[in-house]
Fold this sequence. Notes:
binds pyridoxal-5'-phosphate, alpha+beta, 8 helices, D-amino Acid Aminotransferase, Chain A, domain 1, D-amino Acid Aminotransferase, Chain A, domain 2, six-stranded antiparallel beta sheet, 2 domains, nine-stranded mixed beta sheet
Amino acid sequence: MIYLNGDWLPIEEAKVSVLDRGFIFGDGVYEYVPVIRGRPYRLDGHLARLANSCREIGLKNPYSDARWTELVHEIARRNGPHDQGVYWQVTRGVARRDHAFPKDVEPTVFMMSNPLPQLTPAQVEDGVACYTVPDTRWHRCHIKSISLLGNVLARQFASERGGVEAIMLRDGHLSEASASNVFCVIDGRLVSPPKDHLMLGGITLDGVWELAAANGVPREMRRVSEVELRAADEIWLSSSSKGVVAVTRLDDVPVGHASHRGRPGPLFRRMYQWIWADMYGNTLPKAAE
Length: 289
Ligand SMILES: Cc1ncc(COP(=O)(O)O)c(C=O)c1O
């Protein structure tokens, strides 16, 4: 069952007007939260980011945090019992086509829930391949906008080459991937680009960052040049649907040095355990250790 503007419906029966500004202009924002064993992971972070995305595009957040929280629980419960990924979007609503905001229009709220995708054991154990692309997106990437054409084209480039993600470079520096944040390990430090307008501030990134601090990992938020990215000892992706995964091939070149060249590195292996415990509330199953 999906949720649309106050109604619960089978997805096939859910209909939105062709004049919806989400359809016409991509005028809306969205969120995606993993719900693991009935518990949304870091929901407060997602709700704060949604409120910020709404504020940034001048859209009134239609529901309170308490109402969103109820809905996330409700949709995950209705679609369970498996762990769920809850997606929802808010658009500026239905109005005659005109770029300027319409007056007195109710936003459209759509929420759906699907089984949470799982990394395969091979992706965890061997890492994944990524390809770099120029970051051709706008300069307000901190907004979780439903206008994702730049991200879609980037992902397609990687996907056609057998990569799981496209890692984007802007002005010779790392920004993020098409639907993930990117970390590097450089000289023994965990490095992330700063959470500014050139990337989406990931909620999983926040988790990784806190876990690194809690476990005494030296860390630094700063710009990462393309040269540093290509020479990094480790590269990881983080996102709500993936948790963390190691990038072990970048543009067909093995990542890292010495014994873990082309393999997930030692810091990744530790972070994977910490994030798993944080998300799943327990330690890794034996087989995955
Ligand atoms: C462009 C982009 N960057 C980063 C992320 C990771 O954010 P989060 O960890 O909140 O899922 C996403 C997630 O969809 C994304 O689309």
